């Protein structure tokens, strides 16, 4: 864990001022790493705010090329980038905000053959894909490697957020033995401000877990409906017969 330079103390002064955060949490964040997959309407703000806060190392995975319908929410993109690889613009946008982050951008989405190697490079995963196939793949990788994962998902005006710590909290498969009924593959409704709001909350959880500051949403799920601004938090339980984490 490296000490802070004078420039870093100046840059992060306003968050170091937060009671209980201080230089110690800032040093821990500098020594920490996270994988964000993917970096669209949800993961884009997660990656950007982790970089802004001064995380030491960021691995971001997002495949494909930008489409016009991505632009209502993928705020790392620009309108002139349609048809080009999202990964290149993700790199440019993050480094424009914080050129000091050790950034790796991978132009692929997670699947069974790559997820474990990516997870092995980091301290924590922020799970932000639009499909439950990818989410389940990442869940298996973090459980196998006992790494924490911030689990954030949204649909239309609703969102949920929890922190998975394998062996301590439910894993994703405990919470969703099957993909939830609202999820029917690609193309669910998204308002960019909703995915962005959830992304900010997910970044807060990642920072808390990585620094030891505050009380992460371990064993608890925050569910909110931005149409009514109704926010609820409830306890979630492990399943002893979970096929993924039941043996831990
Ligand atoms: Zn489980």
Please tell me about this protein's structure.
There is one protein chain. This protein has an 8-stranded mixed sheet, sandwiched between helices. It starts with 5 loop residues before the first helix and ends in a 13-residue tail after the last strand. Helix content is 35%, strand content 18%. It has 248 residues and is α/β, with parallel strands linked by helices. It has 9 helices and 8 strands. It has one domain (32-235): Rossmann fold (3-Layer(aba) Sandwich), CATH 3.40.50. It has helices spanning 6-11, 13-16, 22-30, 43-53, 86-97, 115-120, 132-145, 172-175, 192-211; strands at 33-37, 57-61, 102-106, 124-127, 149-155, 158-164, 220-225, 230-235. Helix 4 links the parallel strand 1 (33-37) and strand 2. Helix 4 runs parallel beside helix 5 (86-97) and helix 4 (43-53) crosses helix 9 (192-211). The chain is globular and about 50 Å long. The structure holds zinc ion.
CATH architecture: 3-Layer(aba) Sandwich
N- to C-terminal distance: 29 Å
Q: Report the biggest beta sheet as strand number plus sense, adding barrel if it closes.
A: 8 strands, mixed
Based on DSSP secondary structure assignment, what is the total number of beta strands?
Answer: 8
* Poorly predicted runs of 5 or more residues: none
**Count of DSSP H/I helices:** 9
Q: Roughly how many Å is the radius of gyration?
A: 17 Å
Work out the strand percent.
Answer: 15-25%
What is the name of the CATH class?
Alpha Beta
């Amino acid at each position: 864990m490296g000490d802070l330079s004078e420039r870093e103390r100046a840059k992060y002064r306003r968050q170091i001022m937060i009671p209980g955060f201080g230089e110690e949490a800032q040093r821990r964040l500098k020594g920490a790493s996270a994988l964000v997959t993917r970096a669209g309407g949800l993961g884009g703000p997660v990656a950007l705010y982790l970089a802004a806060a001064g995380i030491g190392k960021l691995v971001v995975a997002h495949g494909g090329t930008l489409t016009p319908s991505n632009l209502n929410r993928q705020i790392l993109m620009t309108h002139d980038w349609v048809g080009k690889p999202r990964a290149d613009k993700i790199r440019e946008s993050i480094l424009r905000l914080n050129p000091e982050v050790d950034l790796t951008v991978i132009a692929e989405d997670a699947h069974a053959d790559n997820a474990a190697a990516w997870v092995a490079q980091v301290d924590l995963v922020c799970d932000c894909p639009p499909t439950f196939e990818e989410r389940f793949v990442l869940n298996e990788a973090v459980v196998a490697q006992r790494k924490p994962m911030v689990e954030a998902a949204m649909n239309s005006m609703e969102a949920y957020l929890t922190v998975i710590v394998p062996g301590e909290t439910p894993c994703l498969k405990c919470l969703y033995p099957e993909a939830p009924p609202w999820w029917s593959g690609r193309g669910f409704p998204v308002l960019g401000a909703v995915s962005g709001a959830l992304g900010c909350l997910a970044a807060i959880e990642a920072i808390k877990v990585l620094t030891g500051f505050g009380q992460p949403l371990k064993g608890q799920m925050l569910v909110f409906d931005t149409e009514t601004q109704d926010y609820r938090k409830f306890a979630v339980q492990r399943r002893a017969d979970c096929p993924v984490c039941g043996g831990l």
